[in-house]
Amino acid sequence: MSFLKQKRSVEDIWPIYNKNVLVRVDFNVPVRNGVIAKSKDGRIRAAIPTIRRIVDQGGKAILMSHMGRPTGHKYAALRSSDEKRRRYVQIWNDEAGAGYTTFFAVLDGEAKKTIMSWSSRVSERSSELSEKEGAGKTDLFSSLPNEEKRTLLKRFRSDERSRASFPQLRQYGGFDDELTLRPVAARLSKLLNSGSGPRVEVNFAEDCLDADDIVARMEPGQVLLLENLRFYSDENSRDESERTTMARKIASYGDYLVSEAFGTSHRKNSATMVNLPMVLGHGCCGYLMQKEITAYAKLLGGAPRPMVAIVGGAKVSDKINLLLNILSQIDYLAVGGAMAYTFLKAAGFHIGNSFHETGQSFGDKYGEAQNIDDLAKRFLIKAKACNVEVLLPVDHLCHTSCDPTDDPLITETAHVPDGYMALDIGPRTVESYRRCVSRCKTAVWSGPMGVFEIPTYATGSFSIAKAMGDGTRESGLLSIIGGGASADAAQRCGHATRVSHVSSGGGASLDLLEGKVPPSINALDDKHA
Fold first, then answer.
1. Known active-site residue 298
2. Rounded CA gap, 262 and 279, in Å?
3. How far does CA 287 lie from the centroid of its chain?
4. Could you tell me which of 485, 342, 22, 412 has the C-alpha nearest to residue 211?
C-alpha cells in the first residue's frame, strides 16, 4: 500500500457557479523580450484542462504563480506606504519584472557605489552620494535604461562568480530573465480561446496582494492571473508569520483552492503552497496534480517487479536519500551522470578530471558529517546485501573540457585517462542499461546520464528515454521519468510521449522517491473511498 494518499480533485468542488476558485499553478516559463517561445509553454498548456473545468461551469478562476527568483519586497513594509508600493509596482512593470532595481536595492552601500561608478551616465552624480542607506543611490540606479542596469549588474556578478564545469552547477544570476507574468496572461488567453467554444476573458492583476477591486469585478467564466507571487518575499519567507499574512490576503479573494503546481510542491516555505490551504481549511488538486499523485502512488505502492531505477545527475549527496529509500523496492540500479564517478572512484577506478565528490563530506539527516567516499562504499555493500545489482558505467565519452567536440574520446574500460573528463556514458554502457530496462516491468529515471545539453554528450540520456519508451510500447513497462533534467532530455529527443508518465516536478519527484510526501500535498484534503 502506498504512503501517498489520493486527494480530492477539482471535480469534487460543488457548487462552482459564480464562485471564486483560487488555482495555484506553475507558470514558471522562460520569457525573452516579452515573448514565450512556443516550445516553452508546456506548463501553461498543462493547466488548461483544470482552468476549463472551472470556467465552463461558470466559476471564476483566479490563478497565481511564481516566476524565477526575484529579490522580493516585504508585504508589511509596502503595505504601510501606498506611495512606496505604487513606486515599486511601477518599477517592476517598467523592468518587465526582471528585478534589476530590486536586486540593486539589497546590496550594501559600498557595492552600490562601485556599480554606479561604472556608469557613464550617472557616475559623477553617484560619487557625491554617501554610502549610507537612504542617500538616493537606488533612486538614481532606477532611472537608468534597463539594458544599462542589466550590463552593470552582470559585470558586478562576474567579479564574484566562478564558472562551473557542468552547466547544471552554474550559479543563478537573479536578474537575467524577465519575471513578470503579463506575457503569460497573453499566452494563456490565446490558448484558452484557440477552439470554437465561448470566448474566455483573461485579465491581469499587476499586484498580487492588491487585487481586491479587480476580483470584485469578475464575472462567471472569467480568468484572472495575479502578478508574480515572488514580487513579495513573503511568498517564500522563512518567517511563518509573514507567509501566513500573505496567505490570508490571497485567501480573501477566493471560496475554493485548487493546487495544480506539482513542480513547486516540494517547497516547504511557500505561502501559497503550504500556508494557503491551512488558512482556508481545505484544498484539492487539479488534473495535473492528480495525475502526478496517481502515478507515484502506483510506483511506490507495489509496482510490478523486476524494477530498475536509473539514477544520474551531479552529486551522490543530492540523491543518497533516494538511493537508500528505494533499495528495498528495486532489483537493479543503473548509475550515470557525474555521480557515477564518485562511485567508480570509491570502487578503485581512475576517473581523470571527471567531476566527483571524493574527499568531500555532507551533513546527514541527523546533522552529522558523512564522508562521501565511505558513504559510497557502504552504499554498494548495502545494495549487495539487498540483492540489488548495481550497474556502473563500463566505458565513457570523454573530452579535455566540458565543451563540444566532433571527436570525443571513447574509453575501452571504466578507467578515465589523465587529463580527460567523462561527460557521458559510452556505447557499451548504453547497451548494458538498455538490456536491463528490457528485462524489467517497471523503470523509474531520475537524473541525466551526461551533459545532454551539449549534443556530443546527449546519447546516453536520449538512449535511456528511448529504451523506456520502447519497453512501454512493446511490453507494457510501467515507466516514470522524474521531472527536472531527465524530463527535459526526454522531451528533446521526442520520447517523452512514449512513456507512462513524465513528471512536471524534479524536486517534488525526488521527495517522493525519498519516501517523503511534500507538505503542500499533505495539506490537501484526502479523498475518502
1. no
2. 20
3. 19
4. 22
Residue ranges of the alpha helices (H) in 386-482? 427-439, 459-475
Identity of the residue numbered 39: S
Contact (Cβ atoms closer than 8 angstroms) between residue 342 and residue 367? no
Over residues 485-507, the pLDDT tens digits come to 999 999 999 999 999 999 988 88
pLDDT in tens, 135-191: 888 889 988 998 899 889 888 877 654 333 333 333 334 455 578 899 999 999 999
- How far apart CA 509 and CA 364 sit, in angstroms, is 20
Q: What is the DSSP letter of 139?
A: H
- SS3 helix, strand, coil % of the chain, rounded to 5? 45, 15, 40
Selected catalytic residue, list 8, 43, 345, 466: 43
Q: Which residues pair with 308 in a beta bridge?
A: 332, 443
Which of these is catalytic: 507, 515, 516, 527?
507
For this structure, is 527 an active site residue?
no
Task: Answer yes or no: are the C-beta atoms of 75 and 210 closer than 8 Å.
Answer: no
**pLDDT tens profile 390-440:** 999 999 999 999 999 999 999 999 999 999 999 999 999 999 999 999 999
**Catalytic site includes residue 154:** no
The helix or strand, by DSSP H or E, that contains position 334, with its residue range, turns out to be: strand 332-335
Residue 192 and residue 65: Cα distance in Å, rounded? 18
Q: What is the 3-state secondary structure (H, E, C) of 475-528?
A: HCCEEEECCHHHHHHHHHHCCHHHCCEECCCHHHHHHHHCCCCCHHHHCCCECC
- Of 112, 149, 267, 315, catalytic: 315
CA-closest candidate to residue 375, choices 390, 357, 389, 388:
357
pTM of the model: 0.84
Which of 236, 239, 233 has the alpha carbon at shortest distance from 75?
233
At what angle are helices 42-55 and 287-300 packed, to 10 degrees? 110
419 CB-contact burial (10 Å; exposed 0-12 / middle 13-18 / buried 19+) = exposed
Active site residue 476: no
- Active-site choice (99, 263, 484, 506): 484
